[in-house]
Amino acid sequence: MITGSLVAIVTPMNPDGSVAWQSFEDLIEFHIENGTAAIVVVGTTGESSTLDMKEHEEAIRFTVDKCQSRIPVIAGTGGNSTREAIHLTQAAKDAGADAALIVTPYYNKPSQEGLYQHYKTIAETVDIPQILYNVPGRTAVDLLPETTLRLASIKNIVGIKEATGEMERAIFYKTHLPADFALYSGDDSTALEFMLAGWHGDISVTANVSPKAMASMCKAALEGDKVLAERLNESLMPLHKDLFVDSNPVPVKWALNIMGLIPSGIRLPLVPLDESHHETVTKALMESGIL
Predict the structure, then answer these.
(1) Domain ranges, residue 106
(2) Among 66, 93, 161, 253, which one carries the catalytic annotation?
């Protein structure tokens, strides 16, 4: 099981929208050097929704190749078509990814039975460890606990990323799921609470700009050092909050750009961070000791 701070890495882009591969490689090295536990590539923060199929597969292969087994790679392979999710999950396996992160189908709003059959079909078709990803604020469908419990009995469904931030759900999963079922927060603001309640890590947006501090905070939480974890998390709270003043990954890509780590590119329908938010994000970076 992968534990700690797992970065939901951005996909760096040039001003014309093309993928900035050298910056991507530099970012991967940045995370390896600063203690990030795993790279989660082409998830929501990686703009999976605007990469075409070829680019999506290339980003996974590129990340696996550049990591060279020094750090695990989890590939975002979800889609609102089960066939598409199977294709991407197979591509992740073929590329050598360690696991796949599969978001609930978005827009078409399947029933709980539809969600169960979707994930079951992918798991039975592609033999790679698979992590469920529930983020109803984006997908308009909530993977309910009873459905998650059903899915947990499928051998290669090995974990969940839960982005609701609901503590009641966190406690329910810790109590009812097998001890070896990986539990990851997908909400930076509440991740510390989840880990202190026995969860295993955070798939983090904040880790993009502050990997070392996020790694240290997660380590302290997992070791039960509540005082240190809370102190570290307090310093990160401005980022947890203000990297979401606009739709993710708009603010975090702007932050990485002013930090000199990536070019300014982002793809339509997303546009660069509005000037009215520049001061807010800059202040968060300063308060967290990054600038």
Answers:
(1) 4-230
(2) 161
Q: Is the pTM of this model over 0.85?
A: yes
Known catalytic residue at 133: yes
Q: Tokens 């989840």 label which residue?
A: 194
Q: Look at residue 55 and tell me if it is in a domain.
A: yes
> CA 213 to CA 230: how far, in whole Å?
12
Residue 97 burial by CB count (10 A; 0-12/13-18/19+): exposed, middle or buried? buried
Task: Answer for the pair 48, 56: CB distance below 8 angstroms, yes or no.
Answer: yes
pLDDT digits (tens, 9 = 90+) for 210-261: 999 999 999 999 999 999 999 999 999 999 999 999 999 999 999 999 999 9
* Count: domains in the chain: 1
Q: Which positions of the chain have pLDDT values less than 70? A: none
The pLDDT of residue 178 = 96
Mean pLDDT of the chain: 98
Task: Answer yes or no: is 13 within a domain.
Answer: yes
| CA-closest candidate to residue 78, choices 59, 109, 100, 53 | 100
SS3 230: helix
Annotated catalytic, 173? no
Q: Which of 133, 173, 219, 253 is catalytic?
A: 133
User: Which of 68, 141, 133 lies closest to 106, judged by CA?
Assistant: 141
What CATH number is associated with residue 48? 3.20.20.70
